Amino acid sequence: MPRTIIEKLWDSHVVHAREGAPTLLFIDLHLVHEVTSPQAFQGLRDRGIKVRRPDLTIATADHSIPTTDRALPIVDEIAAKQLAQLETNCRDFGIRCLGVHSERQGIVHVIGPELGLTQPGMTVVCGDSHTATHGAFGALAFGIGTSEVEQVLATQCLLQRRSKTFQVKVDGTLKPGVSAKDIILALIAKIGIGGGTGCVFEYTGSAIRALTMEERMTVCNMSIEAGSRAGLIAPDDATFEYLSGRPHAPKGAAWDAAVARWKQLPTDEGATYDRTVTIDADALEPMITYGTNPGMGVAINQPVPDPSSVADPLERDSIAKALHYMGLEGGKPLAGHPIDVVFIGSCTNSRISDLRAAAAVLKGRKVSPKVRVMVVPGSQEVKRLAIAEGLPEIFTAAGAEWREPGCSMCIAMNGDQLSPGQYSVSTSNRNFEGRQGKGGRTFLASPLTAAASAITGVVTDVRTLA
Amino acid sequence: MKPFTNFESRMVKLPINNVDTDQIIPARFLKTTSKQGLDQQLFFDWRRDPGFVLNRPESQGLQVLLAGDNFGCGSSREHAPWALTQWGFRAVISTSFADIFKQNSLKNSLLPIVVPPDVHAELFAAEGAVKIDLPNQTLTTPSGRAVRFEVDQFSKHCLVEGVDELGYILAQEALIAVFEQSHPAPIDTLA
Ligand code: SF4
Question: How far apart are CA A91 and CA B24, in angstroms?
Fold first, then answer.
C-alpha cells in the first residue's frame, strides 16, 4: 500500500504495538535543555536508573541563559542555579552538554540541524513544543512533557498514539517581501490554532520545494501554533546538500548509503492523507499578528477584525479580549502602528539567513530613535558566521543591539523582556499575553517586516520602505 | 501515583477560548528545578485582577475547571498540569485540548474531559456540582444528565489503578533491546 512519509517514519520506529495500549516508539535523537529537564533527572535519581542511550542524547542551555557577555556572572540566581543543575545532571548521567560556555551553545532547535544531528528518517523529541523544527529534514519530530523526557532518558522510547496525516500544500511563487514566515502565519490564520490538533503536517508543493533548509525550518517550527505536534517536509537534494559535511553527518560510504535510504522516504505516489489544505503562494502578502495567539494574523495591509462582526459569542469575546489586551481597535490595519521594541531572534528566525535578511534591510539605515532593536543569533555558530560576514557591524551601525545566543525575548525568562504596555514586532513564534514580558504586546512577523519596522518605528510593510 | 477516584465538585468557570500554557503558568516561573509550589503561580497574571474567578471565595476548594475551546495550547511545559493539580483541580472540561497538554495531564492524574458543544453550553449555564466517574466514563451534569466521555483505555487503566507509565515501559526492556539490535544509530552525540 502506498504510504505517506509520516506513516513510513512511524512504521520504522515501532518497538511494540499492542491492542488496547499506545504504541511503543523508538527515539533516535533526544534534545535536552535546562527548563524542562531538571524534574526528569530527579525522577531518574529517585528510581535509581541510568540514561539508556547517552549517545542519542544532547543538552544545551538556551531558555534562561542571559544574552549578555558570557564572561560576566549570571545575576539571576534562580536561572544560574537552573543552568548549573543542567551541567550537573549531564555530568552525572554521562550526557554531552553544550552549556553556558560551550562554543556550540545555542537554541536547541538551531544546534541540532547545525551539528548534522537532525537527519532524515529519524524520530526526534525534546521537552519543547517547537521540536517540529527538525521536521524540515524529513524527521518525525515533536515536543514532549517532562514525564516523557524522563521516559525517553530511561528507555529511549515513548508511548504514542498515531496521529492523523494532514497535507499542507503550498504551490506557486512567493512575491518579493514575502517569506517562509508569512507562509506559516498565513496557514495558522487560515486553520486556527487548534486546526491541526491530533495531526502531523506534511508540507508539500512547489513553494515548499523552493525553500532553503533554513526557510523550511521556519515553516515547520510553527506547526505547533496550529495545534499540530509535528510538521515535516520530505527530504530532497536541498536537504542532502545542507547536511553534507556537518560534524555529525555520515561520511564516505556511510554517506552514500544514508542518501540512498533517505531517498526512499518521500510520500509514495497514490498515498492519501486524512486531510489536505492548500495555500496559494502567489496570493500571499507579508503577515502580521494583531492578537494574543498566533492564529490572530492578517496581511499587513488588511484591517484587523472587528469583534462586533463575529457571530460565535465565545469567539467574539476572545477577539474582543485580545484586542483589549493589545490596546487596539478592530477594523483598522496595523501598518503605521507605533512600536517600542523589535526582536529579531528565536528558533523560528535566528539562523544566518534570517540575520542576512534583516541586515539587508538595515544596511546603511538607522533604526528609529524610539525603538530598541535586539538581534539575537540562534547559536554560537550562527554568531561566528555572522561575524565572518560583517553583519554585527551593520546592526550596530544602524543602532541595533547585537547579543549572545539564546531564546531571549522569545520567552522572556532571562531578563530580556518588554515592559507592561510596550509593543514589539517580533520574529518569534508566540504572541500570548505576557509571553515577552508581563503586560507586553507582541506583533509576530518576518525578519523583513521586523527590520523595516525598526527603521520607521511603526509597523511597516518592507515593500513600502523608501 | 495515587488511584483516581470518583468525585463530585462544583466548577470554576473560565469562559475563554484557547487558554495557553503561558497563561496557566507564565514562563518566568519555569526557572525552578522542582515541581513544588507551582499552585502559587497558577494563572498568576490573571489573578492580579481581584475579580478573576480563581480569586473569588466561592471558587476555593473546587476540583473541576470548566474552560473554553482548545484549552492548554502552546508550550509543552508540564508545569501547567502540575500547577493545576497542586491548586486542587482533578479534572478540566472543554470541547477540545491541545495534544501535549492532554498527555501531560493524564500523566499527572488530571483528567481532561471533552464534551460536545451543547453539554459545554449547558455546563456554563448550570449551577451546582458535576459528578465524575472515570471507571464508567460518565460526567453527570448538575441537572442530572449523564454524559459519556471518551478516554483511551490505557490512560484510564493507569489513572484508575494509579500505575505510572514509566514502570510499564521499563517492563518492555527486552523488546527495546531487540529493536536496538535491528536499528543501528545514525548518530553518536558523544563522538
Ligand atoms: S526560541 Fe522561543 S520558542 Fe524557541 S525554544 Fe526558545 S523559548 Fe522556545
Answer: 33
Q: Does the structure show a pLDDT above 90 at A19?
A: no
Distance of CA B62 from the midpoint of ligand 1 (Å): 34
pLDDT in tens, B17-40: 999 999 999 999 999 999 999 999
Q: Among the residues of A276-373, which ranges form H helices? A: 313-326, 352-362
pLDDT at A313: 85
Going B7 to B11 to B17 to B23, the CA torsion angle's sign is negative
N-terminal to C-terminal alpha carbon distance within chain A: 56
Distance (Å) of CA B94 to CA A413, B123, B162 = 29, 10, 24
Residue B49: how many CB atoms within 10 A of its CB?
11
Pairing of β A157-160 and β A23-26:
antiparallel
| Greatest alpha-carbon span in chain B | 64
Q: Which of B114, B159, B169 to probe by mutation at the A interface, max A CB count within 10 Å?
A: B169
Instruction: State whether residue A210 is helix, strand or coil.
Output: coil
Render A160-206 in DSSP notation, one character per residue. Answer: E-PPEEEEEEEES-PPTT--HHHHHHHHHHHH-TTTTTTEEEEEESH
Distance, CA of A26 to CA of A15 (rounded, Å): 6
Is A207:A245 a contact under the CB 8 Å cutoff? no
**ipTM of the complex, rounded to two decimals:** 0.95
Cα→Cα distances A130→A158, A434, B74, B77, Å: 18, 19, 9, 12
Distance CA(B12)–CA(A234), nearest Å, equals 45
In terms of CATH architecture, what is B7-182? Alpha-Beta Barrel (3.20)
d(CA A86, CA A98) in angstroms, rounded, equals 10
Q: Check if A156 contacts B (Cβ < 8 Å).
A: yes
Burial class, A393, CB count within 10 angstroms (exposed 0-12 / middle 13-18 / buried 19+): middle
**What is d(CA B24, CA B29) in angstroms, rounded to the nearest whole number?**
11
Q: Is A62 in the pocket of ligand 1 (CB under 6 A)?
A: yes
Q: Any idea where the domains of chain B sit in the sequence? A: 7-182
The predicted-structure confidence for A329-370, as pLDDT tens digits, reads as follows 999 999 999 999 999 999 999 999 999 999 999 999 999 999
CA angle A59, A428, A291 (to 5 degrees): 135
- What one-character-per-residue DSSP string does A416-463 give? --PPTT-EEEESSS---TTTTSTT-EEEE--HHHHHHHHHHSB---GG
